[in-house]
């Protein structure tokens, strides 16, 4: 005869079932499946973890902001359309990351004042040599360069301005956390000369794919965990309601718009010619411009009449002096 449960035992059993402490499932043999240990989680504070040691919440958001700003900087500087996307975020020991990597291309040692230990920015060899060719005026149809040698000191100096731009964009990415003043301490081509921390120190490694035309290569950002540890609490709150109400997107878009290049033209006159008249032009011909020397010049911003100005000279060079907005 089965034992009869008392009233308080029935109440305790029903409570345990409703709380999930007692399983109602049976295995194939008809035996009750043992209940697994569980713990509550906060779905609104989950962090994306790609490595067992990774312990910096929401840091992927900062790196994604860096992707966008650095893509714009590279595009503006080199007049080629660059795209940079994050492909990996993981943690590793500092020494293990460099293991079996004899040629890493260009390595920038970065100071991230006021944070400790700084960081590293690494362009792989293919990207490094291709960027050098582009900066020296290579054709837009350039193919990826695969050179089996280390970068020279002169080649590192050519790339230095790109590392300086990366520092500025790192500062922008971190601006919603704190004010950074990053700078390039040194450029190296040998990984054995960039020991910014002890070999066994944990580092956070962000890997990015940079593409321009048919050329592609990797960029690595390496941050010692001790550099980012002071920011953990701030990063945890990055997606909280209080932060959302103080969204930084408007400021980011406004800053990027202010960096867009524009073309300004001082127009003294214009003349309309047919194709046949244009083909008949020869040395010595005089073209009458629709221009009154006593009237202000038209200053065009992206072909739109925006200002008026008067011509003159300044420090021995031709110049214009703005007299006001156009009407």
What does this structure look like?
The chain is of the alpha+beta class. The chain has 3 domains: 1-39, no CATH class; 59-258, Chemotaxis protein chec (3-Layer(aba) Sandwich), CATH 3.40.1550; 264-325, Surface presentation of antigens (SPOA) (Roll), CATH 2.30.330. It has helices at residues 7-18, 59-78, 94-98, 125-135, 153-174, 225-228, 232-236, 241-244, 249-258, 275-279, and strands at 82-93, 106-113, 119-123, 181-188, 202-212, 215-224, 264-267, 297-301, 304-314, 317-325. α2 (59-78) packs across α5. The chain is elongated and about 120 Å long. The model is unreliable at 46-53 and 241-246 (pLDDT under 50).
Summarize this structure as a short list of keywords or feature phrases:
single chain, elongated, 6-stranded antiparallel sheet, Surface presentation of antigens (SPOA), 10 helices, alpha+beta, 3 domains, 327 residues, Chemotaxis protein chec, 4-stranded antiparallel sheet
Fold blueprint:
Blueprint (H helix, E strand, L loop, with lengths): L6 H12 L40 H20 L3 E12 H5 L7 E8 L5 E5 L1 H11 L17 H22 L6 E8 L13 E11 L2 E10 H4 L3 H5 L4 H4 L4 H10 L5 E4 L7 H5 L17 E5 L2 E11 L2 E9 L2
Antiparallel strand pairs: 1-5, 2-3, 2-4, 3-6, 5-6, 7-8, 8-9, 9-10
Helix pairs in contact: 2-5
Structure at a glance:
This protein has 327 residues and is an alpha+beta fold. It is built from 10 helices and 10 strands.
């Amino acid at each position: 005869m089965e034992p009869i449960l008392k009233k308080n035992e029935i109440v305790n059993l029903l409570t345990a079932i409703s709380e999930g402490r007692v399983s109602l499932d049976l295995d194939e043999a008809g035996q009750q499946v043992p209940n697994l240990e569980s713990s509550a989680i906060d779905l609104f504070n989950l962090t994306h973890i790609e490595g067992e040691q990774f312990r910096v919440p929401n840091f992927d958001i900062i790196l994604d902001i860096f992707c966008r700003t650095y893509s714009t900087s590279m595009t503006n500087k080199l007049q080629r359309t660059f795209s940079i996307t994050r492909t990996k975020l993981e943690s590793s020991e500092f020494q293990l990351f460099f293991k079996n990597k004899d040629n890493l291309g260009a390595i920038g040692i970065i100071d991230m004042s006021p944070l400790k230990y700084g960081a590293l920015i690494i362009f792989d060899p293919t990207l490094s040599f291709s960027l050098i060719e582009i900066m020296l005026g290579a054709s837009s149809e350039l193919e990826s360069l695969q050179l089996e040698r280390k970068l020279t000191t002169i080649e590192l100096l050519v790339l230095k301005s790109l590392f300086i731009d990366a520092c500025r964009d790192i500062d922008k990415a971190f601006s919603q956390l704190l004010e950074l003043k990053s700078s390039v301490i040194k450029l190296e081509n040998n990984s054995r000369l960039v020991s910014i921390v002890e070999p066994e120190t944990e580092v956070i490694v962000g890997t990015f794919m940079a593409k321009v035309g048919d050329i592609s290569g990797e960029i690595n950002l390496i941050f010692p965990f001790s550099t980012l540890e002071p920011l953990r609490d701030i990063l945890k709150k990055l997606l909280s309601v209080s932060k959302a109400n103080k969204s930084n997107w408007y400021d980011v878009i406004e800053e990027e718009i202010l960096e867009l290049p524009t073309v300004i033209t001082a127009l003294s006159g214009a003349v309309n010619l047919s194709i046949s008249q244009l083909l008949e032009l020869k040395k010595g011909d005089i073209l009458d411009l629709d221009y009154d020397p006593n009237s202000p010049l038209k200053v065009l911003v992206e072909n739109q009449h925006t200002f008026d100005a008067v011509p003159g000279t300044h420090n021995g060079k031709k110049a214009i002096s703005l007299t006001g907005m156009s009407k």
